[in-house]
Amino acid sequence: MHHGKVSPAIAAGLLALKKRIDAAKIPPSKLDETINVAIWNIREFGKVKRTDAALHYIAEIIGQFDLVAIVELRDSLADLGCVMDYLGDSWKVIFSDWSDDAGGNNERTAFLFDRRAVIHNGLAAEVDAPRVKKGKEWVTEESFWRAPYLCSFRSGNFDFLALAMHARWGDSDDARRAELQRLSNWIKQRFEEKYVEDHDLLVLGDFNTPKLTDPIFAALVSSGLKIPAPLVKLKVGDRFIGGSNLGQDARYDQILHLPTVPDNFTNDGGAVDFYLDDAHIEELFPGKSYTREKFTFQMSDHFPVWLQVKTDIETFRLNQIIQDKSK
C-alpha cells in the first residue's frame, strides 16, 4: 500500500485501523489458489468530500482484498481517484455510468481489482429490465432503480461473472421485493441461455434485505442463488454479529453464488468492523468530534462483507467430466 508521507495523526489512525482489520481475521489469498472478494457500500462516495485521512483508511480496507464491488459510488470520481493512487499501479477499476434521476441517486457501481490476482475478462455491462413490444417499439414496463452491473473476471483457472447491485429502498417493501424478484428471474433466464459467458456467478450487493428469513431475501434467492456457508451467520473474526450495518442488526449486504461448484469452494468469510463504537471514532479522526452520523460520511454506515474463494478448481472440473460421461 502506497500511503506515502502522511501526517502523524493519519499514521496513528492507520495503525489503529490495522488492529480493527486484524480482528476480522481475513486469511491471506494465495496466487492461483484463492482470492478474497468483498462488497462494500461506501456511503455517498463522491458526493460528500472525504478527508485525506478517510481516503487513506478506505484504501487500506480495500487493499485487504483482491476484488471489491463498490456500491453507492456517485457521479464524481475524484475521491475514488485518490483511493486508486494509494492502492498503487497494480490496482484497476471498472465502473458503470451514473443514473441521474431521483431513483438512481446519481450512483455508479464499480469493481476494483488487483491485477496480480484477478484480470478483467472483457465483459462489462449494465443489466436491463425485460422489454415488451408495444406497437413498433420495445419498451420496459418495469425497471431497476439502479441497474445491476455485470463483469467477467479470471483468477487462476477460475473464470467467473460478478454481478453487483444496490437495490432500491423506497417506501414499499413490496416494491423492493419485486425488484429483487426481477433480478432473480433475469439471472435464471440468462444463465439458461446457450451463449452466457460463464455459469460461475458471484452476486454482490447492498440488497436492503433486513433478515435472511424475510420475503425480500426469499425473492432474491428464489431462482437458485445460494448464500455461502461462512456468511450464513455473519461474523467479525470470532465474534458473531447480527448485520452488516453499523448497528449490526440488518443483513443488507450479501455475497451469493450459483451452486455450480462444490460447497467447499469457500471456507472463510465475514465482515470488517472499522467502527467498533462511538468511543473509538476519535482514534481515527482526532480533534474532529465526529458524531456517528458524521463518521459514516467519512467511512460508511456499512461494513465490508468478504469471502475467500478457491480459484484452483481444476480437480473438481476433471472429476465432473468423468461423472458426466458415466451418466
Please describe what this structure looks like.
With 327 residues, this protein is of the alpha+beta class. It has one domain (8-326): Deoxyribonuclease I, Chain A (4-Layer Sandwich). It has nine helices and 15 strands. It has helices spanning 8-23, 52-62, 78-87, 173-190, 215-220, 229-232, 281-284, 292-296, 314-326; strands spanning 34-45, 67-74, 91-95, 107-114, 119-126, 131-134, 137-140, 149-155, 158-166, 201-206, 235-236, 239-240, 253-257, 268-271, 305-310. A six-stranded mixed beta sheet has the order 3-4-2-1-15-14, with helices on one face. Strands 5-8-9-10-13 form a five-stranded mixed beta sheet, with no helix packed on it. A hairpin with a 2-residue loop joins strand 6 and strand 7 (137-140). The longest helix has 18 residues, at 173-190.
Protein traits:
327 residues; five-stranded mixed beta sheet; 9 helices; 27% helix
Q: Provide the β-strand percentage band.
A: 25-35%
**What name does the CATH topology carry?**
Deoxyribonuclease I, Chain A
In CATH, the homologous superfamily goes by the name Endonuclease/exonuclease/phosphatase
Q: What is the end-to-end distance?
A: 51 Å
The major β-sheet equals: 6 strands, mixed
Name the structural class.
Answer: alpha+beta
Radius of gyration, in Å, reads: 20 Å
Number of helices: 9
Look at the structure and give the mean pLDDT: 93
Low-confidence stretches: none
Second-tier CATH architecture: 4-Layer Sandwich
Shape: globular
Give the total of domains.
Answer: 1
CATH class: Alpha Beta
Overall helicity: 25-40%
What's the helix-strand series?
HEHEHEEEEEEEHEHHEEEEHHEH
DSSP strand tally: 15
Strand order of the largest sheet: 3-4-2-1-15-14
